[in-house]
Design a protein that fits this description.
Mean pLDDT: 85
Number of strands: 21
Strand content: 15-25%
Number of helices: 15
Shape: elongated
Helix content: 25-40%
Largest sheet: 10 strands, mixed
CATH class of the largest domain: Alpha Beta
CATH topology of the largest domain: Rossmann fold
Structural class: alpha/beta
CATH architecture of the largest domain: 3-Layer(aba) Sandwich
Low-confidence stretches: 1-26, 29-66
Amino acid sequence: MTATPAARLRRRPPAEPVPSRTGGSRLPSAPRERRPLLAAQAGPGGGQEEPGDGARGAEGAGRAGAADPRARGLLPPLVLGLEDCPGEQAQKVMTWDYTCAGHLGVAGSAGSGRSTLLRGIAAEVARTTSPEEVHVYGIDAGTGALLPCTRLPHVGAVVTRDQPERLRRLLDLLGREVTRRQQLLALDGLASVAEQRLAAGPQERLPYLLLLIDRWDSYVASFESVDGGALVERVELLLREGGAVGLHVVMAGDQTVCRGRMGMMLEDRLALRLPAAENYDMVGMRPRDVPVSMPSGRAFRAGARPREVQVGLLDASPAGTAQVAAVHALARQAGRQWSQVPRSRCPRHVDELPVAISLTQALALGPPPGRGSFCLAVGGDDLGLLPLRMEEVGNGVLVTGPRRSGRSTALYVGALTALDAGAQVVAVAPGRSPLRCLQGRPGVLGVLGEDAVAADLLGLIRHAPSEVLLVVDDFEFLGPDHKLAPVLEKHLKTCRDAPGGVLVSCGVDEIQGLYRGLVGQVRKNRTGLLLAPRSADDGSYLSARLPRSVGAPVPMGRGILVTAHR
């Protein structure tokens, strides 16, 4: 399948050398016209090929009858712009081979082209590879310049700095994937993903992972004091452990991005326009060798000898709106080209939780709960229903939170999804509750109030006690001494390893006093829904360790689902 590239990098025609402080020559700073950097012909997988650019894919395709390197798991490097070669009196294509290079650091001041370079990398990935070959994720701690990239099928998620909960999920996802790949490579006796892709079949090859971070300095300022700097340390762990398993990081920020422990792990570096000439020591330049002025996109790349480069644009117009439009055009093209790629082979999402969602919308997300399952909420990296099976969680689930946090609504949703899955339900609602609306529905054996006695409940569940789901709202109004309490506790034990069980809610302020009885027994299962947690200490009610930063105001219905096996 071929495609015409929609995103084009441009280069300038030859011009008179511009003298620098050292008397050498460098890329012209005032071009008279622009023309396409790459040839218009698309290579395998939609990528453009330029003879002599040093790419393995272009080198193999240039020989008649040669096998396609992509068939062996090799991928072409990414074109970033132009590179000045004074010794050869030429300008060459500047590339970054993420398949064998280390992490890339990009330092520059505001407006120097940092975000443009990151967008260009995401666009080049979409232009030269398929979504099952490279998965891209982004952390945007700046002004949202990476958000347009979310439309590319290769991009799983772009998380901003005002989404700490989503950021944790993204880092969890990448951390688990790094661990999984380390174990997989160790079992196969392989040292890197490059070796694995050469040895494995097309459907078994691991994709490369790219993590783009914009405004690293702002990221550190925002999260270095949150949870003891855990979110900063987890990025450092990805830098240290990710290279061998195919995870490469492109980190952009100010002059501090290449300093300290983080900077030591950035093997490849680009220095765009910086505030002082002394800052260019990160790429091995002396202050007297730095030009007096540098246009946007002009940089020096670290190496045996620093090389002057020019970052390419996606459109002839440098305006931000034109660059974003080019990304959107490429996204539409890539979406059509790779529409047949299975969803399981595409990047995993880290979807944002909705502020509010109706039951109809929640059920439409799927997956539908199977027999013996029910759902309390939607969530997960790929937003959808979160099913629970009583047989797997110990036949008791607790829903807790402060007043007006959505406890009764969660129970109502749990009861409806259990009924849809074929369960039999008995509701206990001592006060005003949406559970009373279940009366008369198919599968509902009865709805009891505060004045019910043990015989009433026993009469409803006598035919198949281990198959019935008891849904109890506001248990703090009943208490452990209520006439129904012994029957509820006995039902919890009767349903062990059976589809039935007890789904109970209790106020978070009253739960401490209910150390015995039904709530005390259900808490031992360490499974439940914590709605609107006010501090990390609320996790102790389900023996869960929550981040210390938990406690900020959240929308009604927002919570944390805790399970013992997750």
